[in-house]
Amino acid sequence: MRDTLTPSGMNAKEWALLLALSVLWGGSFFFFKILAAEYPPFTVVLGRVGLAALLLNLWLWARGDAMSRDLRLWGAFLVMGLLNNVAPYTLIVFGETRISSGLASILNATTPIFTVLVAHVCTRTEKLTAAKAAGVLFGLAGVAALVGPDAWAGLGGDLVGQGACLLAAIAYAFAGVYGRRFRGIAPVKVATGQITASALVLLPLTALADRPWTLAPPSAQAWLAFAGISVFCTALAYILYFRILATAGATNLLLVTFLLPVSATALGALFLGEALTGRALVGLALIGLGLAAIDGRAPRALARFFAGRRQPSPLDDFVI
């Protein structure tokens, strides 16, 4: 899993793509609430990735851009799908049956911590630094502040549910590092491959767990929600995901878990008239500090600034 890609601080375009990805994935919670009122979780997840896989494959077919038939590549897509979709989706669905969604979101926000550690061990270029470690801790503190103290109430209560959500975060971390091997392949094809593989794995799981053929047909509202979560929150989101991963690296990519509550807070303030509390502003500030520290350019600029202002000491010329 070791590589020679050298990620650096993200440029403005990559930050914009990361923010767009956080908005797209943040929207999936809205659509999931609509769908969960009509269907069990596995059916919703299969509908999400199944429709996205169908749309992406049809898009490539219409362009005359066929997917590779290399079995080794499809094996890699299968591993990516298991790490990035099947395992974490299943673990989070199970975890949220035992713990609150707020606590689950905090545990999900540990993904960058595990990503930094996995990348340090498994890559040559994304090593752990003091700035990255500080940035991850600031970001996690910001997410905790945004979600609020009530979410911590169940911490330590149900270790099985909490462990499931932590395992999901670890799976996402390994997926971010594993996905670096797909550089050189168009992001739309990587997205199509891993989503298609995920749908094929989820099909028998859903059949066993939910028996979807016995459920009522989707309502018009559910069809719209399936369209939104499949087209925007899955197909388009994963194209952005692999685009960012190819240029910015796994550590930078998984910062999106810090941005998800930021996007939710901003959308709530803009479109639902929700007030920004002092706690939310503190959380946003902490997340901003964390992102700046992990990006690295702001700390380096400050270091250069203070180095330039340091007054020379008489001892500088003292020679023993």
Question: How would you characterize this protein structure?
Answer:
This protein is mostly helical. The chain contains 13 helices and no strands. The protein is globular, with a radius of gyration of 21 Å. Mean pLDDT is 79; it is low at 1-7.
Characteristics of this structure?
320 residues, mainly alpha, 13 helices, disordered N terminus
Short description:
With 320 residues, this protein is mainly α. The protein contains 13 helices and no strands.
List the helices and strands and how they pair.
Layout: H1 12-36, H2 41-63, H3 71-95, H4 101-108, H5 111-122, H6 130-147, H7 159-178, H8 187-210, H9 220-248, H10 250-253, H11 256-271, H12 278-295, H13 297-309
Helix pairs in contact: 1-9, 1-11, 2-8, 2-9, 3-7, 3-8, 4-6, 4-7, 5-7, 6-11, 6-12, 8-9, 11-12
